[in-house]
Amino acid sequence: MGKLQLYEVFARRQRADRFEHIGCVEAPSSDLGRVYAWQTYDEAKWFEMIVAPRDAFHCVNRAEQPFTLHPSEEALT
Amino acid sequence: MARFTDEELMRKVQEGFIVESEADMTETYKKALIGQLTVQGDTELMSAPAYFMAAKDAPSTNTMVSATAIIQDELGHANIAYRLLEDLGVSRDELLYERPPARFKNPYGFDQPLVNWAELVTANGLYDRAGITLLGDVHRHTSYGPLKRGLVKVGMEENFHLRHGEVWMRRLCEAGGEARDMVQHAVDWMFPMGVEWFGMPDEKKHHNAQLDFKLKGMTNDQLRQTWLKAVVPLCDELAIDVPAHMNPDTEQIELEFEFPVQYDPGAKRWLFDEPITWDQVWDRWRARGPMNEEFVESVRRSRLSVEKMLAA
Ligand SMILES: [Fe+2]
Ligand SMILES: [Fe+2]
Fold first, then answer.
1. How far is the centre of ligand 2, averaged over its atoms, from the C-alpha of B75 (Å)?
2. Given A1, A2, A23, which is nearest B153 (Cβ)?
3. How much is the pLDDT for B146?
4. Is the pLDDT of residue B178 over 90?
5. What is the pLDDT of residue B39?
6. Is B83 within 8 Å of A21 when comparing Cβ atoms?
7. Is the pLDDT of residue A75 over 90?
8. Is residue B1 part of a domain?
9. Which residues of A touch B88 (CB under 8 A)?
10. The domain that contains A31 carries what CATH number?
11. Cβ contact (<8 Å) for B146 and A69?
């Protein structure tokens, strides 16, 4: 079904709210990632929802990668 | 791995430490968490074909919409559990597509056919209540941060499922006659199913890694009692008979049958005069209920055919 990629999903309920990390979806393209995110995380009437590929996130202060639970190899060796 | 020993991690989580990544875990912790998440994901997933089977009997387009919205939620919940498993290195493909149906870890109740609207809404009232009881406890107590966050959405949606069930059970009961009888029949076989859902009594279970590592907070009997204290008053209020009552002295709900007992899945009937041991319950669970293969097959069916079309 094409190469699947993880997209982290962020949303905020109302104007002036902060974005919150609400989950993640797996999709073969960012277009489908947006569709899956909107349909999966429909528990609120979000003011704004955004997705970004997981590998676009880089941890600043910890050895572990953000969202992933696998410790990054170079950081632990 | 192995930042901590098992004993250190047990102590830390009991003091409120939140595990955020694999580096915080021990092998034992990880194994217990994977076990818990597999049961959670399989239960959510297999509720979908069970509910779908009965949703076909929805009495109107509006009710069909609410039933399929619930099914969609359940698939989303399954996705949350399986995603967390993938982050722990478990292959979702293997879990979903390569396990024999008998290895799915959903409760016995979701191996049973739901054949009409009354059974669907009673399942919402009783089984989704069981889900809320179990996952609400996990949400409040779990030492695993990603799961605690993931369960926020699940909790909100499960409450909607429960409300759907209770409102409709009430509607059918108020209509009286055949509608009411159908709810009574559904409760007759689903109530003991719910009692069994929470597993072995505490006195038979000596050691529990999920409690030690604070992957949950309450014991099987405490969870069962919480469920009973919600379900029995609901049935009383609807004048639906259940074989259980509140003991005012102990303030505990007491069962009016010897538990556990044998079940006849073909007749959808509990054999109350046939008490069994927990080993026999396990045998029945392992033998699986009548819909196990068909339900697993139904969530797998179209994948191969779509893959073929995409490849063509
Ligand atoms: Fe669910
Ligand atoms: Fe549910």
1. 10
2. A23
3. 94
4. yes
5. 98
6. no
7. no
8. no
9. 69
10. 3.10.20.520
11. yes
From chain A, the residues in CB contact with B157 under 8 A are: 43
Question: ipTM of the assembly?
Answer: 0.81
Does residue B264 form part of some domain? yes
Domain-embedded: residue B97 = yes
Q: Which domain holds residue A48?
A: 5-76
Verify whether the Cβ–Cβ distance A1 to B23 is below 8 Å: no
Ligand nearest to the CA of B127: 2
The pTM (predicted TM-score) of the whole model is: 0.93
Q: Which domain holds residue B59?
A: 6-311
Least confident span in A13-22, B1-10, B77-86, B238-247:
B1-10
What value does the mean pLDDT take over residues A21-44? 94
**Per-residue confidence at A71, pLDDT binned at 50, 70, 90?**
very low
Domain count along chain A: 1
Q: Which amino acid is at B233?
A: P
- Contact of B19 with chain A, judged by CB distance below 8 Å, is answered with no
Question: Is B176 inside any structural domain?
Answer: yes
Over residues B115-134, the mean pLDDT reads 98
Query: Which of B37, B79, B305, B310 would you mutate first to test chain A, the one with the most A CBs within 10 A?
Result: B79
CA of A58 to the centre of ligand 2 (A): 35
The total domain count for chain B is 1
What CATH number is given to the structural domain containing B281? 1.20.1260.10
